[in-house]
Write a structure and sequence with these properties.
The protein is built from 15 helices and 32 strands. With about 725 residues, it is of the alpha+beta class. A seven-stranded antiparallel β-sheet has the order 21-22-31-24-27-28-29. Strands 15, 16, 18, 19 and 20 form a five-stranded antiparallel β-sheet that branches. Helix 8 packs across helix 9 and helix 10 runs antiparallel to helix 11. The two termini are about 85 Å apart. Keywords: Coiled coil, Cytoplasm, Cytoskeleton, Metal-binding, Microtubule, Repeat, Transferase, Ubl conjugation pathway, Zinc, Zinc-finger. It comes from Oncorhynchus tshawytscha (Chinook salmon).
């Protein structure tokens, strides 16, 4: 209904059309609005009657007026009637009769308007006594939910139409039909049918031939065409069909999609219906998504309104509190000023009283002295002069005592009101926002085998109340958002005041994911995730497992064959094979990723690997299902062998640490903890443990590719001078 109303709205007054004019450009305009346009072009030297043209407000087409002015333009009677019906439907409400009930189509066999005496079906001859509808027809007509009104009646409401002239494209009541269509040419050639709605009466016009209605369908171009297009246009060689035939085929496919027929094949060939259905499905889905998105946006808008009102109320409350604090402080300081004034004036009054008393005494002494000096009687002068002189001398000597000191601080001029700092603070008042996301500084972070120290920076450091550190073991997920939302085992360290923190008790050789959250009263924001790893588990050679012909260094990091070494007692943990001499590491590893290196001497053979605790000690390691070893020949130019145990990913890899080259990889499904093992035939080796995993082996894709390739070579006894034994 709203869409229809927009189509019936004048572009000038934005109200429903009133007395609409039909412009030559096919747009409409209220008569009064058109008059106002002409009036706007008037001036003192250009009267209204002299204006001969104006522009259509919709398309800017220039409308030329004849000598009659606006009266020379046609009235849009059809549009006026539509507006009238629309207004009636709007007043009657949603329960009013619907206008959507279809009237009979033009091709539905309606009889032209003629008299009961017969006559031509297409003329108005002998229609002086028009046939009235039968009782059955009248009942059917009256049963329509919305009757078709005459479009030519001037009375309100218009009478019911009895015929529609297809030529004029207007519906008439009996009286208007007699007045407008007399029984003479050219009206005898007009085609009259039963009353129909405008939408069914007016057909589509051809895009290439003006005023020609489409009546064919070009199958080649999938386009509606007129008869001229087929006769003289570019479609004259194309295959065409009637509109009804094409309509039936497409409808047959749409109504019965499961029936395989020629119509289905034809529709499949053109793809019109299928494309339409697919596009319609996508459009409906898209509309549903847009509606959901719109609902979310509306919800957010509502939340914005609520939050804004809350913040505005909070602003008023906070500012009122500040004003109240200032008012209270003003009163307190004013009272202090008054009290200080009273105290200082009291002191000054006391000092003035003392000065007045001293002044009176001094004046009395001066008067007495002057009187003595004027005494001419020798006896009297001698009697009083000495006493007066002593009193004057005494007063002069004690003048500093007699004259009280004046305290200049009592003038209250050392008092100042300086609120510049507070003013700057008030000028900086603003609403608080959540701090910017902090940034984890990977280059500053450090790690040991069981600790990681995380460093970060924040652009809004002064607005941050505290930080929160979250971390968990990295499971290999590349989508950190999904990881953040799905993992329940996040460890949280709250209320951190510095921009760094050391996490203890971590697993050795394990990669972790860290987030840092900056928090203040307005909210919080997370940093980007950082993947940090602990170093490998440090270990030494275990003396209890060393072969009795091996000598270990004091730091248990070097082992050397020594035939003259002291006899050691035999224990189940000690290596006891003949021809090779081994020792195990001091730790067993059951998780994580660990890396160590072996500095090779000049021994004939070396064997480096891992083994279960239950692996036999009286035979070469790698010859059983409980140990895995890499055999190295002395002739090979290898000075530093790197070993990477990725327990969680079931792999044991060996590298030339000096040349950053991958040598060999075992795929092992570890079931028990394993310990590093080392065997020599002669000379010595030195181990370096607790190392971080080097960058050249820290690439999962490269590692996986090398593992897949080299594990296929395990059947060969030697790999570039080395042998993988199991």
């Amino acid at each position: 209904m709203e869409t229809l109303e927009s189509e019936l709205t004048c572009p000038i007054c934005l109200e429903l059309f009133e007395d609409p004019l039909l412009l030559p450009c096919a747009h409409s305009l209220c008569f009064n609005c058109a008059h106002r346009i002409l009036v706007s072009h008037c001036s003192s030297n250009k009267p209204l009657e002299s204006i001969s043209a104006f522009q259509c407000p919709t398309c800017r087409y220039v409308i030329t007026l004849n000598h009659r002015g606006l009266e020379g333009l046609k009235r849009n009677v059809t549009l006026q009637n539509i507006i009238h019906r629309f207004q009636k439907a709007s007043v009657s409400g949603p329960n009013s009769p619907s206008e959507s009930r279809r009237a009979p189509g033009l091709s539905g066999g309606h009889r032209p308007y003629s008299s009961s005496g017969g006559g031509s079906s297409g003329s108005h001859s002998a229609r002086s006594s028009p046939a009235q509808p039968s009782s059955h027809q009248h009942t059917a007509t009256m049963s329509l939910e919305h009757r078709i009104s005459c479009q030519f009646c001037e009375q309100d409401p218009p009478r019911e139409a009895v015929k529609t002239c297809v030529t004029c494209e207007v519906s008439y009541c009996d009286r208007c039909l007699r007045a407008t269509h007399p029984n003479k040419k050219p009206f005898t050639s007009h085609r009259l049918v039963e009353p129909v709605h405008d939408a069914h009466m007016r057909g589509l016009t051809c895009l290439e031939h003006e005023n020609e209605k489409v009546n064919m369908y070009c199958i080649v171009d999938d386009q509606l065409i007129c008869a001229l297009c087929k006769l003289v246009g570019r479609h004259r060689e194309h295959q065409v069909s009637s509109l009804s035939e094409r309509f039936d085929k497409l409808k047959a496919f749409q109504v019965s999609p499961g029936r395989v027929s020629d119509a289905v094949m034809e529709a499949s060939k053109t793809g019109v219906v299928q494309t339409l259905e697919n596009n319609l499905t996508n459009l409906v889905k898209r509309n549903s998504e847009l509606e959901n998105q719109m609902a979310k946006l509306i919800q957010i808008c509502q939340q914005v309104e609520v939050n804004t009102a809350m913040h505005e109320a909070k602003l008023v409350e906070e500012c009122d509190e500040l004003v109240e604090i200032i008012r209270q402080r003003k009163q307190i300081i004013a009272v202090k000023i008054k009290e200080s004034k009273v105290m200082k004036l009291r002191k000054l009054a006391q000092q003035m009283a003392n000065c007045r008393q001293c002044l009176e005494r001094s004046r009395a002494l001066i008067t007495q002295a002057e009187h003595s000096l004027k005494e001419n009687d020798h006896a009297r002068f001698l009697q009083t002069a000495r006493n007066v002189a002593e009193r004057v001398a005494m007063a002069t000597a004690s003048s500093q005592v007699l004259i009280p000191d004046v305290n200049l601080n009592e003038a209250f001029d050392n008092f100042a009101l300086d609120f510049s700092r507070e003013k700057k603070i008030l000028e900086g008042l603003d609403y608080l926002t959540a701090p910017s996301p902090p940034s984890i500084r990977d280059e500053l972070c450090t790690a040991s085998h069981d600790t990681i120290t995380v460093h970060w920076t924040s652009e809004d450091e002064f607005s941050v109340t505290s930080y929160e550190l979250q971390y968990t073991i990295y499971t290999g997920q590349t989508n950190f958002i999904s990881l953040y939302n799905s993992v329940d085992s996040w460890m949280i360290v709250p209320n951190i005041k510095q921009n760094h923190y050391t996490v203890h008790g971590l697993q050795s050789g394990t990669r972790y994911v860290f987030f840092v959250k900056a928090i203040n009263q307005a909210g919080s924001r997370n940093s980007d995730p950082a993947r940090l790893k602990t170093n490998s588990q440090p270990f030494k050679l275990d003396p209890k497992t060393a072969h009795k012909k091996l000598r270990l260094s004091n730091d248990c990091l070097t082992m050397e064959k020594d035939e003259s070494s002291l006899k050691k007692s035999h224990t189940p943990e000690r290596f006891s094979s003949t021809g090779s001499y081994g020792a195990a590491g001091s730790v067993f590893m059951d998780s994580g990723c660990h890396y160590w290196e072996v500095l090779l001497g000049a021994s004939t053979w070396y064997a480096v690997g891992v083994a279960y605790k239950s692996a036999p000690k009286n035979e070469w390691s790698g010859k059983n299902s409980s140990s895995w070893e890499m055999l190295v020949e002395a002739s090979h130019q290898l000075r530093r062998l790197g070993v990477l145990l990725d327990y969680d990913n079931n792999s044991l890899s060996f590298y030339d640490a000096m040349n950053s080259q991958h040598l060999h990889t075992f795929e092992v499904s570890f079931l028990l903890p394993v310990a590093p093992t080392f065997m020599i035939w002669n000379k010595s080796v030195m181990i370096l443990s607790g190392l971080p995993v080097p960058d050249f082996v820290d690439c999962p894709e490269e590692h996986q590719e090398g593992m897949t390739t080299l594990c296929r070579q395990q059947e060969s006894p030697y790999v570039s001078g080395m042998k993988g034994c199991h």
